[in-house]
C-alpha cells in the first residue's frame, strides 16, 4: 500500500528541514521525501497549506490502567493521544498494581498493541510498589520494554535510593524521571504558596519544595555521572538550577507542561479544582522563566502530564480534590496558540520540544522523519480555529481548566506506522477513508 | 428597619472580600435594630416565619451554631441542625450529595461550617438556597468579623480612622482574613503581627500592614484583637511551646498599655487564658469579649433577614 502525502510544509527540527515536500509512504515506512513525487497506484492525500511534522511524542502521560480504568484506560488514552496529534506516548507506572515488574510492562504493551493506535511506551517504577524503599527490578523491566523509570505522582524522597537508582539504571542506558517535591516542604499543600494561598486560605506549596529536590538530583547526577530527567518543572528557581547544571556539563534534561506555560496561580481563584495540579500553577514570573528556559534550551521537552480523573474526584471541596488535568487533546493547540502565536517560541522550536526533544530525553529512535523508518507523522492545520470542548474529548477525563478556550492550530491527521489513526472532521480530502479510521480506532 | 433598600449586593454571604462597604453598613445597621429584640422578655418576631434554615456543621462549634440557631429562632424561622456527629455527614456522604438533599427539601438558607477552605463557595454552586459561611477552613468567617465590627462600632460610634491590631496565628485564621477585609473597607488600618511561622505570605496585598513585632502593632492601637492558637500548630513545629508563645506573643497589661487608653480588647474565643491574653486584662475594663457574643446573635439575625427575608419586606 502506497500513500503520497502531498504539498505540506514539512518541519523536522532534527534534520533542520522546513520546506514544502511530498512524502511517500510504502508499507508503513517512509520511502521517499522529495520536492515532487508522482507514482501511479498510490493513494494521494493532499495536504497543501498544512504543516507536516514527525509524529509528536508526549513522554509524560497517565493512562491509569490497570486499576483506575474508570479514569482512563490504555485504549481511551491512546485515542486521546491520537486526537491530540501524538504518535508516541510514555506512560507513568503509578497504576494499581504499579508497573514495577516485567510482567506489568508486558501487560501495558499488550493492551496498547490491542488498541492498535499510538505507540505506548511503558515507564517502570523506580522503587518496588512505589514505596520508595527498594529499587525495582529494572533489568527485567528493560528486557520487557520499559523505556525509563519513575515513581511519578510521588518523588523519590530517599536520596540514597535515588542515588542507587541512577547508578543502576545507567547500566541499561535508561533515564530516571523524578517528580521533584520535598515531602516535608510539601506537606498538605494545595496551591502555590503566595498571595493566592493567603487569600483563599489554602495550604501553600513553596517553590523550595520543588527546588531542593531539583538541586539534590543535579548533585546526584553530577556525582554519579548519569543522567536524570526532571518532570514538570514549574519554578524560576528550578530553571536556574538546571541551566547552571547544564552549563557545567551535568547530564540533566527536563520538561515543562502546557498548563504551567499558559496559566498562573490566579486560575485557582474561585476554588476551581480544574486548576489544582501538582506541581501547582505558579506566578507570572515563574511562567516567564519557563518560557525563557524553553527558548534557550534549558527545557528540552514539552510534556502534558495528562492526568485524567473522574468528575467525582474533582467536583468536591478544593482540599479533597485530586491533583491534575487532562492534556493530550489541548497540548498542541495551547502551544501553537499561546506560545508560538504570541511569539514566545518559533514554530520549529515548539515542534522540536514535542518531537526530537522527548525522543532524546527518553533515548528512543523517533522524533524525526527518516527514510526506511516507520511513518509516524503528524499533520497540523496552523489556521484552524477551534474551541476546547471537554465533552468532546476522546479521553475519559473531563478535568481541564481550558474548557471553552478558543484556540488556533490543531492536529488534523495522525499517522502511526503509515496507518491513519486520527483524522479531524475539518480535514477535507476524499482520499481519507473515514470509515476505515473509525473502524481502526473503535475496533 | 433603618435604611432604604435592604438587598445586599451579594446573593450569599461567603466572605467579606467581595462585600461592599454598603453591604457591611447595612448588616451592621440591621443588627443594631435587632439587638433590642434580644433584650425583650418574649424574644420572638414573626419576620422569617415560614422560612427554613439549615445549620450544616461539619466542624464542631457550639458557640457559632447556637448563635445562628438562636438568631433563626428569634426571627421565627424553622432552624434545623445538621451536624457531623451521628448524621449522614459522618457516614461519608459527600458535600455535593448533601447539597442535593438540601435542594430537594426546599431550604431557604444554609449556614455552613466546614474544615475545607472554599466549602461555602462550593455549596453555593450546588444549591439554590442562600449560603452563609460560618467559617470555611482557613479562609473566611464573615459573621465573626461583622460581630467584631458591630461591637467596636457600638463602643466607638464609628469604624473609620482606627488602628486595628490583629495578633497571633494569622496564617490559619479565617477570623483575621474577614476582619482585614472588613475593617479596611470601613476605613481603618489593620496591622498584623505574630510568629513569623504563622504569618501568611504577601498578606499586605490583602490590605493589612505587617508590623515588625507585637509592640509595633499594638502601639497606639484603637482595637487589639488576639487570635486563638491551636496546640496542633505547636506539634507541627510552628512555634516551640505555649510558654514561649505567651511570653513573646501573649497580651498582658503592660503590652496593652502601649495601645490607646480607651483601646478595646477583642478575641473570637474561646480564649486560652494566660496564653493569648492574661486573665487580668481578659476580665478587665477594656475587654469586650462578652459583648462580642451578644453582637453575634444580632449579626446573624441581620444576615438571615437581609438574605432571605429582606427582599420580601
Ligand atoms: Zn508528577
TrEMBL record, chain A:
Keywords attached to this entry: Hydrolase, Metal-binding, Pyrimidine biosynthesis, Zinc
Organism domain of life: Bacteria
InterPro entries attached to this UniProt entry: DHOase, DHOase/Allantoinase_Hydrolase, DHOase_cat, Dihydroorotase_CS, Metal-dep_hydrolase_composite, Metal_Hydrolase
Signal peptide (UniProt feature, chain positions): none
Annotated SUPFAM superfamilies: Composite domain of metallo-dependent hydrolases (SSF51338), Metallo-dependent hydrolases (SSF51556)
Keyword flag Cell membrane: no
UniProt pathway annotation: Pyrimidine metabolism; UMP biosynthesis via de novo pathway; (S)-dihydroorotate from bicarbonate: step 3/3
Obligatory cofactor(s): Zn(2+)
Function: Catalyzes the reversible cyclization of carbamoyl aspartate to dihydroorotate.
NCBIfam families registered for this protein in UniProt: pyrC_multi (TIGR00857)
Family: Belongs to the metallo-dependent hydrolases superfamily. DHOase family. Class I DHOase subfamily.
Name this protein carries in UniProt: Dihydroorotase
Protein source organism: Biomaibacter acetigenes
